[in-house]
Write a structure and sequence with these properties.
The protein is α/β, with parallel strands linked by helices. It is built from 16 helices and 14 strands. The chain has three domains: 118 residues, no CATH class; 225 residues, Rossmann fold, CATH 3.40.50; 127 residues, Alpha-Beta Plaits (2-Layer Sandwich), CATH 3.30.70. The strands form two sheets. Strands 1, 2, 3, 4, 5, 6, 7 and 8 form an eight-stranded parallel β-sheet that branches. Helix 11 crosses helix 14 and helix 15 packs across helix 16. The radius of gyration is 25 Å and the shape is globular. Bound molecules: guanosine-5'-diphosphate and magnesium ion.
């Protein structure tokens, strides 16, 4: 009797009704546009489950105007005046979306969990947001900001990092901010698609994220055909796949698009760079805080001209400027499944193989003899300078050099230094507040050079900045250097195969 009543009530909630007919992927977005059904469901919650859900509202006639989508999963309107204002201007309504989304999500989760318990339905879909872009563009920084934004709104988030090697600076940064992180080392998402699913499943077991934020390898492209589309096609019931966003460092983009002077990579590396932009639905021009108008305007114009299908956002992941507009858009949109990238895998593979990679884990400690602690910020900054000098001498164009230093056994304290071009200065993005007695250093370098050169430069710079200048001991616990292999995607969907 109870189950029957439950099912009847739940059927009045349209998405769950859809659910029961096995078409769950339509999700909850449509739910609250029906005023009376919402009231039913509120009563249902209170009477049947006894839950006190603060869901006051009703949305009289609040169907979004043609061509616009609801933001997030649902809408709550305080009164019909606001609901009606949606048709005219979205602004009013957007103000309450975040709160509404969180409340309603909790409510639906409860309903669904009850259903899962009673009639064994699978749990609801999470949003999968992939944030690509070239090495050093600011993906990790933006993802951390996005994760904090979601966390503040009580939306559960899980981070997925990816690299060709192991020992990732990006994961160390995610963990230091206490977000759940799963790492896919040893190959890109597209070539390790099953590991991506395993990582998402592992995060689901940990904290059931509402939103996955995934950072692919910065030299990777063709992600829509090899990751987004297969995810949508094979796992469409589990994930709502957002449009691919590609983050851009404006100085690097200016150099590559010929707007400013600067060293460039070889043709095939540039080929990857352009392909990344070509497949982006959202181009996110980052580091607005560094950009003067003299470059900003021509850069935006050039991107618009060369990549006319993309929507362009301008943000600073560091200051937060412009970020919320992109957050809201990417949280609401679903990928366009009709865009396909033409790509020559030989050129792509050659471009990737021109880049040398080095990942190292180094233990550093005081030698004794009077030195009992050291300044970690100072140490990694001077190590970055020593490395830059040696790489410059070797003729390497640095794509991204990043290092973190954490006190042994404390992953929440972290110093991080970055160099995003050979002609830029090393920059401390995270600082340690106290000196250390011993620490773990992670070094990740991606540069256009023979990988053996990266090892020589790293060992020499460690000797110079750690041993000689500071009389500290270091031990290389792990070091790998290589050129990425030819990309061989697990799946690749094309216009013919979709
Ligand atoms: N000035 C400035 N620097 C930024 C911004 N976003 C990222 N960075 C810096 O750019 C460097 C590379 O950032 P990261 O997020 O690691 O790039 P990723 O390789 O794309 O993940 C780091 O030094 C960041 O602190 C920004 O909005 N403004
Ligand atoms: Mg990164």
């Amino acid at each position: 009797m109870l189950v029957e009543g439950l099912l009847k009530d739940l059927r009045t909630l349209s998405p769950i009704g859809v659910d029961l007919r096995g078409e769950r992927k339509y999700g909850f977005k449509r739910l609250l546009v029906f005023e009376d059904e919402v009231r039913d469901s509120e009563e249902f919650m209170k009477e049947r489950i006894g839950a006190d859900i603060p869901l006051t509202l009703a949305s009289g006639g609040a169907v979004p105007p043609a061509g616009q989508r609801l933001v997030g999963d649902t809408v709550r309107y305080h009164d019909t005046t606001k609901a009606n204002s949606y048709a005219g201007g979205k602004r009013n309504v957007e103000l309450i979306f975040d709160e509404a989304r969180a409340i309603y999500k909790r409510f639906l989760r409860l309903v669904l969990e009850t259903l899962v318990w009673r009639v064994n339905l699978p749990p609801m879909a999470s949003r999968y947001i992939m944030i690509g872009g070239f090495l050093g563009a600011g993906k990790t920084t933006l993802i951390q900001r996005f994760a904090r934004f979601l966390d503040d709104r009580k939306t559960r988030v899980g981070l997925i990092t990816n690299d060709q090697g192991a020992g990732l600076v990006d994961s160390a940064i995610g963990r230091s901010n206490r977000f759940p992180v799963e790492e896919i080392p040893g190959g890109c998402f597209c070539c390790r698609f099953n590991s991506l699913i395993e990582a998402a499943t592992a995060l689901t077991t940990k904290n059931r994220p509402d939103v996955f934020l995934a950072e692919p390898v910065g030299s990777c492209t063709d992600l829509v055909a090899t990751v987004s589309l297969p995810l949508q096609k094979i796992y469409g019931n589990d994930y709502v796949v957002a449009p691919l966003s590609v983050v851009v460092d404006p100085i690097r983009a200016g150099q590559i698009l010929g707007l400013v002077e600067g060293k460039k990579f070889s043709e095939n590396v540039l080929y990857i760079y352009r392909k990344q932009l070509e497949e982006a639905e959202f181009i996110v021009v980052n580091k607005l805080d560094l950009l003067d108008e003299a470059l900003r305007l021509p850069l935006i114009a050039a991107l618009g001209r060369e990549f006319p299908e993309a929507q362009i956002f301008e943000i600073s992941a560091r200051s937060g400027q412009g970020c919320e507009a992109w957050f809201e858009t990417v949280l609401a949109a679903e990928m366009n499944t009709a865009r396909f990238l033409e790509i020559d895998y030989d050129r792509y593979g050659e471009g990737e193989a021109l880049l040398g990679w080095l990942n190292a884990t180094v233990e550093i400690k005081c030698e004794g003899g009077g030195v009992e602690e050291f300044d970690g910020n100072d140490l990694i900054e001077s190590l970055a300078l020593a490395l830059r000098g040696r790489l410059e001498m070797a003729g390497a164009e640095v794509a991204h050099l990043k290092m973190t230093l954490t006190p042994q056994g404390d992953p929440y304290e972290i110093a991080a230094v970055n160099l995003v071009r050979g002609d830029s200065a090393p920059e401390l993005s995270h600082r340690l507040y106290e000196p250390l007695e011993d620490g773990e250093l992670l070094v990740n370098i991606r540069a256009e050079v023979d990988p053996a050169t990266l090892e020589e430069a790293t060992l020499a710079a460690l000797e110079e900045a750690v041993a000689v200048s500071r009389s500290l001991l270091f031990r290389v616990a792990h070091l790998e250097h290589f050129r990425p292999g030819m990309p061989v995607p697990t799946h690749r969907l094309t216009a013919e195969t979709v």
